[in-house]
TrEMBL record:
It comes from the Bacteria. SUPFAM superfamilies: beta-lactamase/transpeptidase-like. One of its GO terms (molecular function) is hydrolase activity. It comes from Lentiprolixibacter aurantiacus. This is Serine hydrolase.
Length: 416
């Protein structure tokens, strides 16, 4: 018997069977995935908005959400829907605490502008003036110095970290936070080769905001966490927001989740399996997650606290007599340093600005930032010309394609 000739055929059959099983499992996951009720084009009143949001959480994805709307410095809408943590019987409310993830970049950008107001830096300073370790490899011989402004509007050319890397930059409850300057100095050599010449394009990068965190530490003499708390969170009385879960947050804590049946579920077990707490009610429920890279994505808090940041922004930098930015800095953040992508064909208006993503609406600009990471999706929008702001936080990532449209439903109602 020629066993050598049979071995390759056996291996080939085994691989075909394995591939068939993978395809079958993928098809089952796709069919069994939660069907998100697509947002309508508009709603006529709050009752219709509430009805849609109830239908959304009843679909199971997301299990819970909280939403707040600010108009003319007043909170005109604040509600929670569904479950912050269904296995622990915690309902979602406006006070529910979620991970902000990338919306953290807005306080980071505000901190940089504060330091410019205090004469500690200028937006057009070369990054190397403040961070001696900062060196990059240019794609051409232009060698334009990368400035703080380039980091703020993602026009530096510095690449982003991939999803696998970001999944590794998280840690469990009880593990100490990392020194942010030490962290970025250690990992930056992996990101020194620029994707494009500074200022000639824009591409989203968390690495750029990690560098901004180091600049905040260098120019303020404080660690990043302390600076943000003392100069933004405390003046705005954002008492349910911070960089770690506190005893006061526990009764309002949302658990991150992910649908049990989805294409990402097997990868979730593979990439961050130690953060999975349990699987029940059609969802994978997660333990507390902390991110190592704080300036791009580490804040934790409620939509009610986020609404205080929105109100301060709409009030030209102040809230209840406490000023966090000058009117000039708010104007700079809103109206200037907008950068279009190099291949922008003008089909719709999209720019990256200082912190914000900028869209053009009928009445002027819409400022927006989203956040997404293990277990959570968040979105914040501000319409400066209409004195309107909206915030939506939820405890899974399945709304990342529809979050903007849900907030559009609220923005389209008459809140006068």
């Amino acid at each position: 018997m020629n066993t050598k000739s049979k071995a390759p055929r056996f291996t080939q059959r085994r691989n075909i069977v394995l591939l068939a099983v993978i395809i079958l499992v993928t098809m089952v996951a796709y069919v069994a995935r939660p069907k998100i009720p697509i947002p309508p084009d508009s709603v006529q009143n709050v009752t219709e908005l509430d009805a849609y949001l109830e239908t959304l959480v009843n679909s199971g994805s997301p299990p819970g959400l909280s939403m707040v709307i600010v108009k003319n410095d007043s909170i005109v809408y604040s509600k929670g829907f569904g479950w912050a943590d269904r296995p622990r019987n915690i309902k979602a409310t406006p006070q529910t605490v979620y991970h902000w993830w990338s919306i953290t970049k807005i306080p980071t950008a505000i901190a940089i502008l504060q330091l410019q107001e205090r004469g500690k830096l200028q937006l057009d300073d070369p990054v190397s003036r403040h961070l001696p370790f900062f060196e990059v490899a240019y794609p051409s011989d232009k060698r334009t110095p990368i400035t703080i402004r380039h980091l703020l509007n993602h026009s530096s050319g510095i690449p982003d970290a991939g999803g696998m890397k970001l999944a590794k930059w998280i840690h469990h409850e009880g593990e100490p936070p990392l020194d942010q300057t030490v962290l970025i100095e250690r990992v930056f050599p992996d990101y020194i080769t620029l994707k494009f010449d500074p200022g000639e394009d824009t591409a989203y990068t968390n690495i750029g905001y990690m560098l901004l965190g180091a600049i905040i530490e260098k120019t303020s003499g404080q660690n990043y966490r302390d600076y943000i708390e003392q100069n933004i969170l405390v003046p705005l009385e954002m008492t349910q927001t911070g960089f770690k879960f506190t005893k006061e947050m526990e009764a309002f804590e949302a658990a991150g989740s992910h649908p049990s049946f989805s294409l990402m579920s097997p990868l979730l077990h593979l990439m961050i399996g130690s953060f999975i707490r349990e699987t029940s009610n059609g969802s994978i429920w997660m333990e507390r997650v902390y991110t190592d890279q704080e300036p791009p994505s580490a804040l934790i808090g409620s939509v009610m606290d986020a609404s205080r940041l929105v109100r301060a922004y709409l009030n030209k930098g102040a809230l209840n007599g406490n000023r966090i930015l000058s009117e000039e800095s708010i104007d700079l953040m809103t109206n200037h340093s907008h950068v279009a992508e190099a291949d922008d064909e003008g089909l719709y208006f999209f720019r990256r600005g200082i912190g914000w993503h900028i869209f053009k609406e009928k009445g002027g600009y819409k400022l927006e930032h989203t956040g997404g990471g293990p277990g959570f999706f968040t979105i914040m929008q501000i319409y400066p010309a209409d004195n309107l702001g909206l915030v939506l936080f939820c405890n899974d990532i399945t709304l990342e394609n529809y979050g903007w449209k849900i907030l559009q439903l609220g923005a389209g109602l008459n809140w006068e």
